[in-house]
Design a protein that fits this description.
heterodimer; A: about 100 residues; alpha+beta; Histidine-containing Protein, Chain: A; four-stranded antiparallel β-sheet; globular; B: about 550 residues; alpha/beta; Glucose Oxidase, domain 1; Enzyme I, Chain A, domain 2; TIM Barrel; eight-stranded mixed β-sheet; eight-stranded parallel beta barrel; about 45% helix
Amino acid sequence: MADAEVDVRNPSGLHARPAATFVRAAGGFAADVRVTNLTRDPERSASAKSVLGVMGLGVSRGHRIRISAEGGDAEAAVRTLVDLVDGGIGEELDAG
Amino acid sequence: MSSELRGVPAAPGVATGSPWIHRPLPADGVARRSISAASEMAVGELERLALRLRDEGRLDEAEILEAQAMMAADDELLGRARERQADGEDPVAGVVAAGEEVATVFAAMEDELLAARAADVRDVAGRIARHVAGVDAPRLERRSIVVGTDLAPSVTVELDRALLAGIALEGGSRTSHAAILARALGIPAVVGVTGLVERAAASHELGVDGATGTVVLDPDAAALDRLAHAAADAEATRAADEAFHRMPLATSDAHRVHCFANVGDPADTAAAFAAGAEGIGLFRTEFAFSGRPAPPTEEEQATAYEHVLRSAGDAPVVFRLADIGGDKPLPYLPFPPEPNPFLGVRAIRLAERHPDLFPTQLRAILRASARAGRIVSIMAPMVADAADLAAVRRMVDDAHAAVPDAPMSRVGIMVEIPSAVLLADELAAGVDFMSIGTNDLTQYLLAVDRGNPELAMRQDPAHPAVLRAVARVVDAAATRSGTCDVAVCGEMAGDPAGAMLLVGLGVDELSMEPRAFGAVKRAVAGHTRAELAALARRALGASSADEARALVAGA
């Protein structure tokens, strides 16, 4: 069991292309990975391996999310996904 | 013996071919494939289509299809579909309903980017449902006219373009996806043809004339001959129009009218001037606001507007303040649901709810004006009366006070609300120009919803009531002391018959999509100013838009 919180700072949040990139990355791990949009609804989570689930969380720029995982490679999964979000998920981050 | 059906012209050109009917899915309770197998087939199709689009360099479309391929394998969707099947629901309808459930969640999001994905989800669910129903991917085998109630984007991209001769739809309007795509690809199309699918299914061959909005069922020798003539005419018209493209917009006795371009993207500015535009009569600034999670800053806007002004050189540029409404909400400007967004809190009516929106935009426009060292025109949409205009004037004055190095701007209004026509005398006294938005003016004046395909035939600005409204605005501008120009920036300005009437009514400037320049210039050049004025006077007394158009056709 591993979890971490991270701020989403890339312009289009977890929509469209970034959502697809995020879900593909999550799909590479055996662990059961879940995402929660703490800004919008801390009570609801979705599988990080479902693009519809992730997009359904409505994560926009400036939102804070929690990524939690359970299973063999849980720690690696959380670390990888947090780094991905921190790096802008393939989108440019504004300075500051 | 051939017969004809009439619809709404959606994309010009003439074509004949076999009818290929795009049918809704059967709901006979029979699953011909499991949901898992159908999902796999859908994923495979979408991935292949995405690859093909990538090869063609259409990366944005490819990305949408790649995301759809992921959706097609998503348990969020498939799980709901399986539950419905387990509950005894029709398996095909169950997949569609599951897609609808997920899409509804997306559509309700106040984020525009995400809300747009609802259509993608529905499309994916439809594709899986098709495989569950055992219906194969659409494939054209010969030159075909594609017939249906409507066409989804993913169906259209799948069709073999070499065999797709024409499109004829029962539903849709000039502004529906299929119509826009047909015009972009140069495929003749007719939409809004009542009773078409049933009649076409019983026919062996179809003819489509996208200029007149005619569909011919089983054309006989005489009808084929007429279609061939129409095709030759269409080509001759295109060539004749082309010859006028770069000429001035003038009557045969050299009465000049300004020929301006409507532009909605800074990247298109240079192309509009290359096509012969004398100025930008309508720059839609919504581009700066849409497709982003947060509002554009003053500096971001100023940079974009400066780019437009520099591409324009010394030519006039009219920036229309953001025309945003509840029909297309933005993530950072949430709209409470409104039953009638076109009669709701839109355009300048947003100033109260969002007090920074227009002051920021006005300062950005003036900063761009100062940096480019040239004057700009500012146009306010949805001005209903003198009080609205006074509020706009105050905001413009404040912006000038904040940006003292900008040259004094020209200020004008869109005339699109009927009250602005009735109050044109008072409004003309307070502006430098008025630009008539004939699309919305027609919708409001005739109480015809622009988006309702059943009423598409009634949305015609050649209607005598619209012509009288234009005449009234021209009169109001003429009687005012000093100069107040009257422009028309609706689709009517880019329609040759409409342009003839507008010039006859005394409009100073026509602003249109640049591709219409040639046809409009050729139509106006065929008559003297006095002939067009006499034609317009007769059209003012017509009993309907059709009668007004018949008068123009006979001129």
